[in-house]
């Protein structure tokens, strides 16, 4: 109950925080900036710290820049609690699913002079704008692709998949891997029967959506979603193409034939002992599609160091540093969204892979589901979908139940 109440209060806490007072009085003397992030990856932190050190060489008014890693499982709730409790960071890494709450609440300072809009790919800024103003820099716009263990597929008698392959072919290959090797066939990374929004990488092939474009109408009970989830349910429980609930498999340790994830995970293949490839998502009945995971960096309006934080964000997001960050987080700058540019910071990936999965994916992709009050919505959807993850589930009935539970929230 306590978790549910915290989730339900997320949007309200942000609005209350934003309306309670404006920016705190500007701090005097050298500032220590703090930026909350969700990654604890040593390589990510090393890069961020090197950029911060370079910035401080020419900015004596900033004594230190600290990157504060918060657990991803409760990242947004912890961040919101910090802001409401008077312990707000100066900058925050914001996930796409909470973007509507942060942008709409007034908790973020507008980034009027950060970057010219024409320097950013239009598809990357939609979540982070309100009334023409940018409230967070979309530093990571990363389409999902499929990493393939070519050795496991060959062992299972399957040909290497290529762009344009279908979901039927993907499930057939995944089932063969499981049957021949006993290892997992296809893993939807970070789903684990909890992170249901990652299933957008599957249902997008059927043209399904969690809710309508205006966010007011539930889409879970619509025919496209029922068909997509019926296909997925069969792939899990009948075909054994995906690991069942309670089973985990790490593709990067050689425990699965394929995984759906983003290019930031490619670094885990640096010492891979198997041959691998990266290809676009399979096509579905509605054809080819792309799904994007996104994150922005915003300046917390209440921070007494807001001006200095915005200046550091301007430095962090300049073309040179965006190119460096591009090895993990595909940048929104159009000048950097070329296979040649991305290949410089992603040596493990081929230009063809970057073009097909990242560049083409950004131009045509849809961002994972996001909505005001996302925390409460996400928990409610997850609770309803729990009924789906058993062999005898009634897919249509379960999805109708999802809509019955969340439609009142969407209609607010």
Automatic annotation (TrEMBL):
Signal peptide location: 1-26
Alphabetical UniProt keywords = Signal
InterPro entries linked to this entry: Bact_solute-bd_prot1, SBP
Query: Which CDD domains does this chain map to?
Result: PBP2_TMBP_like
* Pfam families linked: SBP_bac_8
PROSITE patterns listed in its UniProt record: PROKAR_LIPOPROTEIN
Recorded hits in Gene3D superfamilies, A to Z, give: Periplasmic binding protein-like II
Instruction: State the name under which the record lists this protein.
Output: Sugar ABC transporter substrate-binding protein
């Amino acid at each position: 109950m306590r978790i549910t109440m915290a989730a339900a209060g997320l949007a309200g806490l942000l609005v209350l925080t934003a309306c309670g007072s404006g920016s705190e009085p500007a701090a005097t003397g050298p500032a220590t900036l703090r930026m909350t992030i969700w990654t604890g990856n040593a390589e990510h932190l090393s890069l961020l710290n090197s950029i911060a050190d370079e910035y401080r060489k020419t900015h004596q008014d900033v004594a230190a820049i600290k990157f504060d890693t918060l657990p991803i499982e409760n990242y947004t709730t912890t961040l919101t609690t910090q802001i409401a409790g008077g312990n707000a960071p100066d900058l925050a890494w914001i996930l796409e699913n909470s973007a509507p709450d942060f942008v709409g609440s007034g908790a973020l300072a507008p980034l009027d002079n950060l970057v010219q809009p024409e320097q950013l790919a239009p598809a990357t800024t939609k979540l982070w704008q309100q009334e023409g103003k940018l409230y967070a820099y979309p530093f990571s716009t990363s389409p999902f692709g499929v990493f393939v263990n070519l050795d496991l597929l060959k062992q299972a008698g399957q040909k290497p998949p290529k762009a344009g392959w279908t979901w039927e072919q993907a499930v057939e290959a995944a089932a063969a891997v499981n049957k021949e090797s006993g290892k997992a066939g296809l893993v939807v990374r970070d789903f684990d029967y909890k992170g249901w929004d990652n299933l957008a990488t599957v249902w997008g092939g059927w043209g399904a959506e969690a809710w309508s474009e205006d966010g007011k109408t539930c889409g879970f009970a619509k025919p496209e979603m029922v068909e997509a989830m019926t296909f997925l349910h069969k792939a899990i429980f009948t075909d054994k193409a995906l690991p069942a609930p309670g089973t985990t498999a790490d593709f990067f340790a050689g425990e699965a034939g394929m995984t759906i994830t983003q290019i930031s995970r490619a670094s885990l293949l640096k010492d891979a002992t198997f041959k691998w490839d990266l290809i676009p998502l399979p096509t579905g009945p509605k054809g080819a599609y792309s799904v994007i995971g996104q994150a922005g960096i915003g300046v917390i309006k209440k921070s007494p160091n807001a001006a200095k934080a915005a200046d550091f964000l301007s430095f962090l997001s300049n073309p040179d540093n965006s190119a460096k960050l591009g090895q993990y987080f595909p940048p929104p700058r159009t000048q950097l969204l070329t296979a040649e540019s991305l290949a410089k910071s992603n040596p493990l990936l081929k230009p063809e892979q970057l073009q097909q999965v990242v560049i083409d994916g950004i131009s045509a992709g849809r961002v994972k589901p996001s909505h005001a009050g996302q925390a409460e919505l996400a928990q409610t959807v997850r609770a309803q979908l729990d009924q789906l993850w058993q062999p005898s589930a009634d897919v249509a009935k379960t999805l109708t139940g999802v809509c019955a539970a969340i439609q009142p929230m969407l209609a607010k």
